[in-house]
Every structure is written in C-alpha cells, then in structure tokens.
Amino acid sequence: MTRLTSDLNLLQPLRAILEERSVSRAALRLGLSQPTMSGHLARLRTHFGDSLLVRRGSEYQLTPLAQRLMETLPDVLLGAERLMAAQSGFDPLTSDHSFVIFASDYASARVGAALLKVFEREAPHVHLTFAAVLTSVVDGAPETLRSSDGIMLPHGYFSRQPHLDLIHDTWVFIAAAENEAISDTPSAEDLLEAPWITTVDGAGAFTPPSRQLHIAGADPKITMVAPSFFAIPEIIIGSRHVALIQRSVAEGLVQRRAGLRIVEPPFSLAPIREALWWHRDREHEPAHAWLRRAMHRALIEPDRAEDP
Fold first, then answer.
1. Which of 111, 135, 167, 287 has the smallest set of CB atoms within 10 Å of its CB?
2. Does the domain spanning 171-270 belong to CATH 3.40.190.10?
3. Model-level pTM?
4. CATH 3.40.190.10 region(s) of the chain?
C-alpha cells in the first residue's frame, strides 16, 4: 500500500508539470518548493523513461508521450480518487462523506426537504451539496455524471444511464387573485394573450416549462425571465402576468401567500417525472447505494422513511 500511495501521489505533480510546462510554476501551483517539484519530475522521467518536457528555444514543450498523458490524466486522477476512497461498506452514522448532486431549485427543495430528516437521524455528519443545473452541466454529460453523484432531470435528456424516478408532479398556472383578464377556467387564447413569466427562455432552454410549452405548440408572450421558480409568485402578485409552475409549488405558495390563485391548464401537458441520474461507475459504491436507498424511502415510500 505504501508503494501504491507513493505512485498515486505523483499524479497531481505530473498534471501540474504538464499543464504548466514549467517546474517553477507547477511548484507554485501545488504549494511546493522548486527542489521538491524537480525531484518529482526526475522520478516521473525515470518511471516513464521519457523526458516529458523538452526545451525548444526559450520555452518547454511536451514530448509525444506527455501529450498522450495529458489526454488521459483527468480520467486517471478521478479513478485514483475513487480507488483511494473505496470502502467495503458505508456506515452513515459515523461517515463524513460528501455528496454532490446537480439539481434545479425546485428539485433541490423537493429532494432536500424529504431527505433532511433521514440525514439528521441516520447520517448526521454526511454532507450534501446541490449544485445549479446549468446548460454546460447538461451538455457536458456524461463527464458531469462521472465527476458528481448525479443530476436531477426529467426523462429525455439521458439514455442508457441508471436512474431513480423520485419526483412526480403536474403543471398548473398561477395568476394574481385580482387579475380579471384570467378567469378560473381560461381558454388557451386567454392565456396566450396574457404576458408570461418563465425561468428560462430561448431555443436552448432545458427547464421543463419551456419544453412543455414547445410540446404543447404554445407560443406565449414572455416578457420576463426569473432566475428561480420561487421568485415568480412574488413578481406575479398584483400584475397581469401568468406563469406555468409545478402544482406542488403552487399549492404551497397559495396556502402561505395571499394574492395568488391556481388556474388549471386548458390544454394537455405531460406530467412531471424527474429522476436522479448517475454514472454506471457509481452503481456499486456503498455510499452511493445508501444515498439512493435513502432517497427512495424519503420520496417514494415516505411512510417507510423511518426504516433503515
């Protein structure tokens, strides 16, 4: 194990040296002394039987082998991290494991609220981070899946990836209580003539409302784009605008906040099925398996959430 750990410890210096193409800059980047980094380079050269860096004029360039190493290092480093972190089992009660899941504000609220009691009871030291689902995150899959614990998204974005369906919901409109232009049973024309608020607009939009409107053939008059589903209701109160949001969100807001009402859609919209998607490499990781079981108990079978 000592030899294995020693060899793995050279991977970060290798990456720094190849990316910086300078021993001094690589040392500064990793917070090491220049002699120490020079020693690492010497060991790496001996190991690979290659110079790795060669001087060309006033600069250093990568050898052909070093260029190939640059292409494979990210995956190797990720694999090494998982290798050293591997455990034969996972004890949530004593573990300080950290999970990272990409999710929208809506999914974060639904999943986070359901998981909170499970974490408090079973995994008091485990840390869960919800990171924002940006377009680059979705476009960067499967690399995003490989470097995180998963992404919360509806069906249609990934194929042939393991997943767990967690959120089931439907769509409704919300409008200001005093908005006389929108009745409790409006026509599609009434809604399309009203000004709209949404969370993401444009052809590249990947949030569910934009996809639903496109599928329904609706072309609303969007006059404002909000950064979050939860910002929309406060903006709508007292206005003539409408917005399409999840029923669970709308019902909670109407109960807590006067001045809002729910309007049923006059056209058919597909129900929400949002799932946690993860990389196949994590399928048998004990910590990840526990997280999936906890999510299933908390969201799919909440009556059994008390059972370990």
1. 135
2. yes
3. 0.66
4. 98-168+273-304, 171-270
